[in-house]
Amino acid sequence: MRISTLSLVSILFFLLVSIACDSNDEFNPAEEADEQNNDDTDTEETNTAPGDFEITIEVINFYRASVAWSEPVTTLPNPISYELYLNDVLLADSLTERTYELEGLEELTSYNLKVVAKNEIGETPTTKEFSTPQKRNIRLIEYENYHVYSQGDTVLSRQEIVYRPDGQVGSRIETSTNWPRPSPQHFYHYDSNGTLSNIEQEFWETPSQTVGRVQYSYDQGNITEIQTYYGHSDFNQVREFQFISPTHYTFTQNNCSYGCNFSSFEVATFLNSEGNIITYHRTNTDTAETYVLHFEYENGNLTKIISDTDVHEITYDTQKSFHTYYNGYTPTEAVGPVAGIAGFIYSLFFGSPFYELNRIPGFFGYTPINNPLEHRLNGEVIRSFSYKYNEYGYPSEISTNISYPITKILTYEEYD
Predict the structure, then answer these.
(1) Which of 226, 247, 227 is nearest to 237 (CA)?
(2) What is the phi/psi pair of residue 7, to 5°?
(3) Residues 90-105: what's their mean pLDDT?
């Protein structure tokens, strides 16, 4: 069979095209990888800047607020950090937690808080405004006393101050690891006008019970008499203050312990324009012996007590006195861990003339404006104090050292 030249050429062309097509259909790994990479590029997610979020603020008091914010949404869970501004002032950066405590705020002040959420893509700010309330009154409600003795023993006692609905002190009750029941207890009683009428003190000592009482008498609002009793089976002490005028009175004292010792005095006090005693003049009506004290004040603080032989000086801090309540007369001489007499701390001022403050009615309710830092006797520092303060400017911790370290933790409450 004869094949034409044209047909032969067609057959050869068809074979060449088929071979070329088969060659293109062979597997090429490089091309396959390129195609896969192109597919991945088309489906990969990109991250976004943090989304919107909300801020919540809990105003604790005039001084402090707690801030928290919700977690912003992003496409990918990449790390988010935060910056925090208060009135456009940077407080913190690179925060990873979503909470923050604001402190050092001022009362009755408006604030603008801004939180900025940031990641590698961008940032999102959120703001919130808030205001602080007015600073409320606070009062002391508890002492905790820690005494560390030379042998290393720590003794804890606690004194609780309970107030009446009218805001006056109702009771002061102390408990201690040394006694199985409260010791001492002071109960305050008032007349229908809210005037202090008497203080009853119960004080337990092993093995006998000790009781103290203070009775106040008035005439048309003016004090006329104070009678005090303190004693137990082996000892009792009775004092009477008979007022001729608010600054002139007689003072008698009868101490009985296996025999009695009676003393009688006439007292005159002189006041400054603020009503504070500047001179105390006492005369023994039996012996005519006199005892005189002079007092000096600065900024409402008793800074100097001068007797015939000694000069006591007291320096103060600039913060508010821890002694926020009216103490009244303390019947017992050994007044315990917190004296409260004239707002001073401990019976650490025990001894003349501080000892005498418990015999001067004008000091029963006196409290310094500030807190004592040092007590000097004739120029020598005999006691010093250090403090930690709370946000209200009152001491939250007091430390001193008598013959052993003493630390007092103070707790307060707000009230209207």
Answers:
(1) 227
(2) -65, -40
(3) 94
From residue 192, alpha-carbon distances to 182, 326, 365, 366 in Å are 29, 18, 20, 24
Task: Report the distance separating Cα 59 and Cα 128, nearest Å.
Answer: 13
Beta carbons of 138 and 391 less than 8 angstroms apart: no
125 prior amide bond cis, ω within 30? no
pLDDT-derived band of residue 6, with 50, 70 and 90 as boundaries?
Answer: very low
- Strand ranges for 8-69 from DSSP E: 55-59, 65-69
Alpha carbon distances (Å) from 54 to 61, 95, 302: 22, 16, 54
Two tokens, residue 395: 């001491």
Q: Point out the least confidently predicted range of 37-51, 95-109, 325-339.
A: 325-339
DSSP result, 136-198 = PEEEEEEEEEEEE-TTS-EEEEEEEEEE-TTSSEEEEEEEETTSSS--SEEEEEE-TTS-EEE
The pLDDT assigned to 219 comes to: 85
- Say how far residue 140 (Cα) sits from the centre of its chain: 9
pLDDT at 380 over 80: yes
What CA–CA distance (Å, rounded) separates 89 from 92? 9
Pair 188, 171: CB distance under 8 Å: yes
Q: 101: closest CA among 318, 309, 391?
A: 391
227: Cβ–Cβ under 8 A, 6 or more apart, which residues? 213, 214, 215, 217, 238, 239, 240, 241
Query: The pTM is what?
Result: 0.70
Q: Is the Cα dihedral 250, 254, 255, 261 positive or negative?
A: positive
Instruction: Kindly list the strands in the beta sheet with 89-95, ordered across the sheet, starting from the edge strand earlier in the chain.
Output: 89-95, 81-86, 110-118, 123-131
**Is the separation of the CB atoms in 184 and 190 below 8 Å?**
no
pLDDT in tens, 274-295: 999 999 999 999 999 999 999 9
- Cα separation of 15 and 18, whole Å? 5
Amino acid making up residue 29: P
Token code pair at residue 64:
């402090």
Q: How confident is the model at residue 91 (pLDDT cuts 50, 70, 90)?
A: very high
